[in-house]
Amino acid sequence: MTIDRSAEYLLGLLHELRKLPRETEWVEFKHNNKKPDEIGEYLSALANAAALMGKVHAYLVWGVDNDTHEIIGTTFNPDTTKVGGEELENWLLRLLSPKINFRFYPLQVDSVSVVLLEIGAAFRHPVQFKNTEFIRVGSYKKRLKDFPEKERDLWRVFDRIPFEREIAVENVAVDNVLKLLDYPSYFDLLSLPLPDAREGILAALVADEMITPGRGGKWDITNLGAVLFARRLDDFRFLRRKAVRVVLYKGEGRVESTREQEGSRGYAAGFEGLIGYITNLLPTNEVIGQALRKEVPMFPELAIRELVANAIIHQDFHLAGTAPMVEIFSNRMEITNPGLPLVSIDRFLDSPPKSRNESLASFMRRIGVCEERGSGIDKVVFQTELYQLPAPLFETTDEHTRTVLFAHRSFREMDKEDRLRACYLHACLRYVQRDFMTNTTLRKRFGIEEKNSSMASRIIRDTIDAGLIHCHDETVGNKARKYLPKWA
Q1: In this structure, are 397 and 426 located in the same domain?
Q2: What would the pLDDT profile of 360-393 be if each residue is shown by its tens digit?
Q3: How far, in Å, CA of 305 to CA of 300, rounded?
Q4: Which residues make beta-bridge pairs with 469?
Q5: Which residue of 150, 193, 275, 354 is surrounded by the most CB atoms within 10 Å?
Q6: CA distance 300 to 201
């Protein structure tokens, strides 16, 4: 089933809103006022007010009398309204910051037109329209900066409510909760027996904050429950764009894709299937360096598991229109997630675990999907060394974090940047293992024979010159020297 609003639901909602004794901070009634700028300001004011009042949505309704709440109809039609040739909805979205979820619902009630605008509550930051933040004070729209006490309260709300505890869909009947969520996978992944009665199922989901009690004996499904155990993410309108996308390209560029698939299930329920799909797409190598001489995937599965899990867990869910993505090329794999990292990319190996989504991360660790004590990046680096692959590359864009795994290249085929990065990450890995990098350990990492130890020494010198590592004790001979990452 889909959680797009049915006509029956919307009519019931309209009836409930009309029963309110007066306009509130999170509901506004209009007749025919369709000035685009005023609609944008109300979007900002109502979204911020909804967050402040603890509401999942706010509403702007056309065709209802402001004082009596009687249905009087409206001539406003959002589908045909344009601003300078641009569709109203696109125009509003472009001028809102940060982007929020909103949707117009035209209705026919008693042979007259009514339009209901459903507005998602603000999250993380107050919503601006044309660089100005608005708020509702009683039934009036005001500039937020003129009410500093409300601004302070709003920021306290943002600090208090993480994404996982926000509501994905509210007031769902029990039967529909069990249709929307893959609850058998929940019990299976936790190695728990499936309760005989639905009361036991609901109690377990409540205990893990997958659902919360709603109104009138119904239930609210949290973002945590939906994003982990949705049978179909498409059933949750605001999570549709959060499915992991996998793209296989022909060659080394993005000019031609040969296969593309977007996940449909929640992250926990669909994780094993996702990893299996990715590994099945990978070509194999017959010989990789000196460590392995057999038919193996281009990239180690353990490294893929950790990186995909990290992309899911550490993403910024509040970035609209973007989701984790896995791109496979003939010479590399790129795993990208929305949001910049909370720690420096140079410190991925040693930094303690830190995530925007602690409840999501905790549950994924409980079911064994990702590393319990940290980011798991040390496992990724270890696996690339074991397979004698080039070191992974960690990088950021304006709004995303990306990890690149490279296909096997011999030592001679690696360029200077490859060698410096591998040397630095090898020093980091040794350090988190309570050990030191030496000429000998670096030779083993690259598969360099002992008689060519000078090659390892040259890489170490270049890495020191680049400011990435330093010598622990320069009083001993070159072969006995120990090296640490720059920050140690």
Answers
A1: no
A2: 998 998 998 876 555 689 999 999 999 889 999 9
A3: 9
A4: 485
A5: 150
A6: 37
